[in-house]
Amino acid sequence: MTTFIADHVNALSPSGIRRFFDIAATMDDVISLGIGEPDFVTPSPIVQAGIASLQRGDTQYTANAGTIELRRAVASHLQRKYAIDHDPENDVLITVGVSEALYLAFAATLNPGDEVIVPEPCFVSYTAQVALAHGIPVTVPTGPENDFQVKAEAVAAAITPQTKALLIGFPCNPTGAVMTRENLLALACLAEKHDLMVISDEIYDRLVYGFEHICFASLPGMQARTLTLGGFSKDYAMTGWRLGYVVGPAEIVASLRKIHQYTIMSAATVAQAAALHALQHGEEHVEEMRLRYDRRRRLIVDGLNGLGLDCFEPRGAFYAFPSITKSGMGENAFSSRLLEEESVAVVPGSAFGPSGVGFVRCSYAAAHEKIEEALRRMWRFMQRHG
Question: Among 3.90.1150.10, 2.30.33.40, 1.10.1740.10, 3.40.50.720, what is the CATH number of 7-42+284-385?
Fold first, then answer.
């Protein structure tokens, strides 16, 4: 019988994250350091703004690109934080999370066979999204020796006549790496020299610790070739609201809107109302959560290093990425046995690409006391295996 599944979909491997979540869901007393989701509830004033919109009867579709009020707020936010100016009417598109923004970016710009350079370890959907758009992902490894920052010389070595774009995601999921201005400027020079589009996933831009986040589009000459992806799920603890945005040159954003028009009537109206309040009045909540993440960050990094699981210091997001080589196990065996023996869930680093072999991802978007208990269980585990 003829298969009805597309070849490029058959070729995709299942997500390496999902398998451990599925197993953990069947177990009692599991502490999950695997899920990349804030454990905070969306701040009450933001929730109330959503409720108020429902009570006003705002239950219809908005403009397909999102309400003009929210698009103006996004443009104002980027101008205030990073001194870049965008036309909210033509340069901003409100999406159903950053996941849709990423899909649109590739679907609208890639021709079959176009290559996209992707530094790794990287978020699990990056290379898959390129492949689903019939592009070719070309991965460039990073490691702890460079604080998991991608170097321009490594990117330059991967460029071919088929290279069309560079996809970067910093602060990084899964490593917590943050790029220095110097390294980003070197990438900007490459993008200009080789006429590359840059897709910059900056969903964790506000969750940075003792470091400066540089918006790639703010670098000299980069606004004209950069799509900036952002959203509300991480900074404002709004994962379930499913709202993101893409901002960039009007000509490119117009191509994304074409696909968005045929796939999404509009992002959820209630979520847009809540996000508008978040951008206009949510600064104190972002800072409060950032400080609490920072405290957890220091706890988990010190704890992992104390266990002999060498961990470089993450500067952003809410992930630690320790090496597990001293356990004598590979990352898949380590994750499986830790879950089975001590009911602690982590994600094997290889889920994020070959550069993640020998590492695991531990999220500190969990309560402080849960991280403490997870470290106690991991101590028992390493006494047996480390």
Answer: 3.90.1150.10
